[in-house]
Queue: 3 jobs
Job 1
Amino acid sequence: MKREVAEYVALCDVCQRVKAEHQKPAGLLPPLKIPEWKWEEIGMDFIVGLPRTQSGFDSIWVVVDRLTKVAHFIPVKTTYSGARLAELYISRIVCLHGVPKKIVSDRATQFTSHFWKRLHESMDTRLNFSSAYHPQTDGQTERTNQILEDMLRACAIQYGTSWDKSLPYAEFSYNNSYQASIKMSPFQALYGRRCRTPLHWDQPGEKQLFGPEIIEDAECQVRMILENLRIAQTRQKSYADHRRRDLEFAMGDYVYLKVSPIRGLRRFKVKGKLAPLSGVHDVFHVSQLKKCLRVPEEQLQVDELNVQDDHYIEYPVQILETAERTTRNKVIKMCKVKWSHHTAEEATWEREDNLRVDYPELFASQS
């Protein structure tokens, strides 16, 4: 009996929809493939909602190399068109590092626009978008955003809203900071030596490398970075999977889709079928899905209940008392009315002129 009750509750459609889950989040961590060379694969994202500076900037475009971790922080405006963003991309990224093979980003409107797709199609660059409501796909760029926001908050305390003037120094500091995943700074990973800073922290000397030695040294650096990244990815995956559970679906399985991340007001036409997911991409991370234990065809179909807004029509049946209410410049006649389906104790005071217009039969019966 107890087992049958537990099975019935587990298959209950209402319980599956509304009950909170107390299990680990679904979906193990599948790390992205490590790039083979510098600036072949990059990640990008926008930090929006910043205080507007005197130059009109209110956002930051963050671009990160997925191999060396070198980042560029570009101040932008939310009103920039796709053509303006393309100009910045060419001048700040392509002119310095060449055309990448792959770009990882979220599904922001700037990255999913027709112009942006055609631009990278012409340059033979593949666009990889993260799953809907799953920013962890490009965790490296999200983590870079957190570090940059912390640095800007520290600068804002001293410099106020002029954060765009501090942005080049934040980029320089980030690119010369030690990265645990590659066991060196992004600058050293990109150029093969440590940067000589204005503070002369270490004053590294120039390496006297010629001919094949330069190529051999660069290849050695990249091999070391790749090995360090593989070790770091394995370590990160073990940490992440410890707090997650594996969940797989097969073709034809029925699932529940979590739509709670959808924010904002949705407007629909008065007539027609509501489609709250019409503007959402049809690919979802496994953490946004929940397996349906009972096939919809096997569920009991309950007849729909047609409930009317008003179960009865309310109308006045008797005037219990009359009175006059004096205002500043006129006298208003009031009537204490007993309504149908209500007792005399629930009678209300109404204006006589309104009652004569809406219920003339009430006064005809009294006369």
Note: Residues 201-209, 264-274 have pLDDT under 50 and may be disordered.
Job 2
Amino acid sequence: MRISATIPDEVGEAVKAETDNVSAFVADALEEKLARIRRRQAREDILEAAGTGGGGTDFNDTLRQMRRHSDRG
């Protein structure tokens, strides 16, 4: 997929100084950012489930279900 983005000149220059493959660099950075977002959401979901007691369900069962539906497999 092709995506266009505007970034500050100094950021673009720093990336070009680090790598010859800017596309791969940006793709890696975006994947890392998405992983951080997903981990943060998972932590929030776990804390919410733990704080509510899971609505009468076993917390470990809730955690297993969350893992099944995540990209962890």
Note: The first helix runs from residue 9 to 18.
Job 3
Amino acid sequence: MRGAHMQLLLILGIVFAILAVLFAVQNNVPVTVHLAVWSLESTLAVVLLAALGLGVLIAALLSTPRVLRQQWSGARSRRQINLLEERNAALEARVTELTQALEGSAPQALPPAVEPKPYVGLKTLITGGAAGADGKS
């Protein structure tokens, strides 16, 4: 995908260069540009193309900090992703290790079930125990 993108940019650059040459050939009228104490005499095409180039340069300089911040942020995010993927792989390996250890160990016998003692209520205690041991009078 990146190669196709580069080819498209190359084609657009060539088309732009051809248009710039056509513009320069058709606009060869001499003009004088006065800026403060300087005076520049050149063709209209050169002056306009220089202004266009200066605009591109200013735009590139103004957008550079934002682009650098995005690249740094992307690099920081990639490092964090790599670190988290390494931690995840280590934890998955540990889970596998513990699962295998658990499956490999002998099953442990459960302790014998203890029967609960029968409930002795107040009535049983008062009447003497034998008649109400099963909960019926």
Note: Helices lie at 2-26, 44-104, 122-127.
